[in-house]
Amino acid sequence: LDLLPGPRDRQGLPDRIRFWKSQIEEPNADRTFRVGLLYGPSGCGKSSLVKAGLLPRLSKRIDPIYVEATADDTEARLLRQLRRHGGPRQSTSSLAQAVSLIRRGRSISSDKVILVIDQFEQWLHANPLSPDLELVNALRQCDGGRIQCILMVRDDHFWMPVTRLLKLLEVSLDANNSSAIDLFDASHARKV
Question: pLDDT tens across 159-179, in order?
């Protein structure tokens, strides 16, 4: 955490971590997000921020599921990870069904599941957007109370595809579900 620049709270937690931690740990679905977006340029540290900074600091009642997106098997990777974490077993045929079961409290013993999909631009690049896509249907099941998702994406060429996807999901970006990560400035990079 010492490598992160910027303000910190009373416990020394950087604002970037505290923002996502508080949104994920919020039990009331009306006060948090269903699908969030973490974006920034390539190499700015989005993956490190989440894997080393955020996920290890989440409450034990939150079950994080982290996957790196690919062009063709992101859905299968997510479904495998959900099953590894005690989610719906083999009788569940699709990712959307599995996420729906979690949303209804019929799977996974934790209070909440957070899906984190890194390098989401890989999936966006290979999949022309359609409301019939399995991942779109799965993300529509996220309710904020039992299951949430954070999409991590490079912002250079993928802002419009992400915007189109969020429109399909009926999710608006605002101060509660999106955050930009920028490259370190030169002086902080020298310090690191």
Answer: 899 999 999 999 999 989 999
Q: Which residues pair with 154 in a beta bridge?
A: 40
Provide the token pair at 7: 């303000």
Is the pLDDT score of 192 beyond 80? no
Is residue 165 helix, strand or coil? Answer: helix
Beta strands in the chain (DSSP E): 35-40, 62-68, 112-118, 147-154, 178-180
Secondary structure element (H or E) that encloses residue 43, with its range: none
> Cα(41)–Cα(147) distance, rounded to whole angstroms?
27
pTM: 0.90
Euclidean distance between CA atoms 167 and 161, whole angstroms: 10
Tokens standing for residue 12? 């020394």
